[in-house]
């Protein structure tokens, strides 16, 4: 189903100035609207390879004359390029250059990687908000096998919902050892990188020479720019205001990918229209998914305390314990589905998923011990099962912090703690080696008075601050070697090692806190994309996912028709999730009454066709919008507040353009001043 397209107004012509960069000095890539993703990647890569010949830092590319070629490229793309895959290509190249581990060109590859990221976000800042949505959510099509792609029903039947949709021909229900790797897995990541490497290695090969070869960019088919940015680790790009506004729009449900719940439903990005969208499509909104996750986990926590603090009978199972087992099974199945859908790379990107995996392991151990104890009628094994399950609180209670991680403060602090924990573990390797050396010496020297376990406990007390214990036992260990060795150990543990650890953690915190917000926004963006861009139409909330598992997994043997299978899942979803949808609809109704314009996030200016440059009159991909370009409920024939808002936004757009031009002139002035400086100063600055 084709989407409606529109063209973007050209930027106002700049006044001739001696400070303006000369585009004729660069061999700029000419990117046509009909160029494929493969061609766009090659053209951009050739340009960056030619203009970036010396390593530069990210800040130098952004603020000094080292980034002149990037400013020229952005101006060129803004005035001539309407290819929808331009942002996708830039972010794919950013990942390719960042993964270049050649020790002779690593600095140059990092510079080109930063250049791609800078060009991508600067290009987006020249667009209106609605056009930025079009570019960021544009999915790379399959130019050759579009008619052979699996239908939505096929993808639904696999019950897979990858963050990165699989390449053509890959079916989750027909996996084989020779098939493509799961999306998001390490093999998939390697496949994506290898495809770009093969492409960039043949930059100067004529198109006729490799026309019949397999398209090396095939693994990127059906990925949008935000998904490529997530897998590429483009944290600066994802942290940009315009990109975060799109991510927030997806989080709030202003931008949706499914607007109906039917067998023939098609996934594509569109702006939410409350009058035409199916209410059950709101189940895929990340904000409501997170709200249900909080509710489900709260009930899980209550059942946990009810079982462990109540009467624990090792010989029989109570009703509360049965409910806990149901909740535990739903939790494990939901986490397993999420891991399969997202892949190991994206699943491990969220630190709370590590807690979930440990919770799953403890829960499975508890269930196994409980079943064995009941089968053998062994009260000892039953009591051990409850003791093992008590360990769940070590991870279940801190898991509450995952709710706080959505707050910018906690979301910024948690990455710092995560990195400090990594540095602490690395430092403890050195501590353990030194500890084992002293433990061996003291155990051998004082073997007549102290056994190995007793000596290990004494040294542990000394390491954690009880230095007096060491001075009390040093003569008993050995009159000659005991005192000097113990003084050395106390000095190392209490002064050198602990002081070094404190200083290292302080430096680690200071280093990470400067980029912690980018880390927070990166994790937040990954969560939103995982929850919203799934290829699965029907997503069952836990514990209802157990019903889908019990009913439809066996039915796959009797329902070969994918449409019938999908229709059955839709019926079950409507029956089980009706109360949840009712609560969501009531909440949104109240919110619309309190804030009538709260749902209209993207009010970018409409292009003025009368002032558009002829070169810009090309179609560009557009996210499907409501039938009227005006906010829902407003008539275009009447002057409304929305129309006045558009006029104000148009003026703001003009002002933003002028500010951007002024910023460019300031950058050019800075570059000119640097050129007028003495050669030694300029050279040292560039280095």
From TrEMBL:
Q: Where is this region: Disordered?
A: 1-21, 143-187, 600-652
Record bears the keyword Nucleus: no
Biased composition, Acidic residues: where in the chain?
A: 146-157
Q: Where is the Calcium channel YVC1-like C-terminal transmembrane domain?
A: 297-588
Q: What parts of the sequence cross the membrane?
A: 291-309, 354-373, 393-412, 424-445, 485-505
What keywords sit in the KW lines? Membrane, Transmembrane, Transmembrane helix
What Pfam family is a match for this entry?
A: YVC1_C
- Which intervals carry biased composition (Low complexity)? 1-18, 161-178
Q: Give the InterPro entries listed for this entry.
A: TRP_calcium_channel, YVC1_C
Q: Which domain of life is it from?
A: Eukaryota
Basic residues composition-biased segments: 606-619
PANTHER family from the xrefs?
A: ION TRANSPORT DOMAIN-CONTAINING PROTEIN, NONSELECTIVE CATION CHANNEL PROTEIN
Name this polypeptide is given = Calcium channel YVC1-like C-terminal transmembrane domain-containing protein
Species in which this protein is naturally found:
Sodiomyces alkalinus (strain CBS 110278 / VKM F-3762 / F11)
Organism classification: Eukaryota, Fungi, Dikarya, Ascomycota, Pezizomycotina
């Amino acid at each position: 189903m084709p989407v409606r397209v529109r063209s973007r107004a050209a930027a106002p012509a700049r006044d001739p100035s001696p400070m303006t960069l000369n585009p004729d000095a660069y061999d700029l890539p000419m990117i046509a609207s009909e160029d494929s993703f493969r061609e766009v990647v090659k053209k951009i890569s050739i340009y960056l390879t030619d203009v970036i010949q010396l390593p530069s830092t990210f800040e130098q590319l952004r603020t000094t004359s080292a980034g002149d070629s990037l400013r020229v490229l952005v101006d060129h793309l803004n005035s001539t390029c309407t290819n929808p895959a331009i942002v996708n290509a830039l972010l794919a190249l950013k990942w390719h250059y960042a993964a270049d581990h050649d020790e002779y060109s690593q600095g140059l590859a990092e510079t080109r990687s930063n250049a791609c990221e800078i060009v991508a976000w600067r290009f987006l800042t020249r667009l209106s908000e609605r056009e930025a949505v079009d570019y960021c959510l544009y999915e790379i099509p399959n130019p050759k096998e579009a008619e052979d792609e699996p239908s939505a029903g096929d993808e639904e039947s696999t019950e897979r919902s990858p963050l990165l949709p699989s390449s053509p021909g890959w079916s989750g229900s027909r996996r084989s050892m020779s098939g493509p790797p799961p999306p998001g897995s390490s093999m998939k990541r390697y496949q994506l990188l290898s495809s770009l490497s093969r492409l960039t290695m043949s930059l100067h090969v004529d198109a006729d020479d490799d026309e019949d070869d397999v398209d090396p960019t095939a693994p990127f088919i059906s990925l949008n720019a935000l998904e490529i940015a997530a897998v590429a680790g483009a944290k600066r790009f994802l942290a940009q205001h315009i990109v975060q506004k799109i991510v927030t729009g997806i989080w709030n449900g202003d931008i949706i990918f499914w607007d109906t719940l039917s067998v023939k439903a098609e996934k594509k990005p569109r702006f939410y229209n409350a009058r035409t969208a199916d209410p059950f499509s709101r189940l895929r909104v990340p904000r409501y998914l997170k709200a249900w996750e909080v509710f489900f986990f709260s009930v899980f926590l209550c059942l946990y305390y009810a079982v462990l603090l109540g009467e624990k009978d090792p010989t029989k199972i109570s009703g509360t314990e049965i409910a806990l087992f149901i909740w535990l099974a739903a939790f494990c199945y939901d986490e397993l589905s999420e891991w399969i859908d997202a892949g190991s790379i994206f699943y491990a990107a969220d630190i709370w998923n590590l807690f979930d995996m440990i919770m799953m392991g403890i829960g499975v151990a508890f269930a196994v011990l409980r079943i064995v104890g009941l089968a053998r009628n062994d009260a000892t094994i039953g009591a051990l099962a409850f003791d093992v399950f008590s360990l769940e609180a070590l991870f279940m209670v801190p898991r509450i912090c995952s709710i706080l991680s959505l707050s910018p403060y906690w979301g910024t602090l948690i990455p710092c703690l995560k990195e400090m924990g990594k540095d602490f573990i690395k430092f403890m390797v050195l501590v353990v080696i030194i500890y084992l050396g002293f433990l061996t010496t003291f155990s051998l020297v004082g073997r007549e008075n102290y056994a190995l376990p007793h000596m290990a406990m004494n040294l542990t007390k000394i390491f954690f601050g009880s230095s007096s214990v060491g001075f009390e036992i040093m003569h008993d260990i050995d009159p000659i070697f005991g005192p000097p060795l113990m003084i050395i150990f106390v000095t190392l543990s209490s002064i050198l090692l602990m002081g070094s650890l404190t200083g290292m953690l302080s430096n680690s915190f200071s280093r990470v806190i400067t980029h912690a917000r980018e880390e927070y926004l990166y994790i937040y963006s990954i969560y939103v994309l995982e929850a919203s861009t799934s290829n699965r139409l029907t997503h069952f909330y836990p514990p209802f996912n157990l019903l889908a598992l019990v009913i439809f997994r066996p039915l796959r043997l009797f329902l070969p028709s994918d449409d019938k299978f999908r229709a059955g899942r839709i019926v079950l979803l409507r029956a089980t999730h009706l109360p949840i949808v009712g609560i969501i609809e009531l909440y949104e109704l109240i919110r619309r009454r309190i804030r009538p314009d709260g749902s209209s996030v993207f009010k970018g200016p409409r292009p003025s066709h009368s002032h558009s440059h002829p070169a810009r009159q090309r179609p560009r991909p557009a996210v499907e919008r409501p039938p009227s370009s005006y906010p829902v409920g407003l008539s275009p024939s009447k002057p409304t507040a929305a129309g006045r808002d558009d006029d104000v936004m148009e003026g703001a757009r003009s002002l933003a353009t002028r500010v951007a031009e002024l910023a460019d002139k300031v950058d050019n002035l800075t570059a000119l001043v640097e050129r007028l400086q003495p050669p030694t100063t300029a050279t040292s600055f560039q280095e």
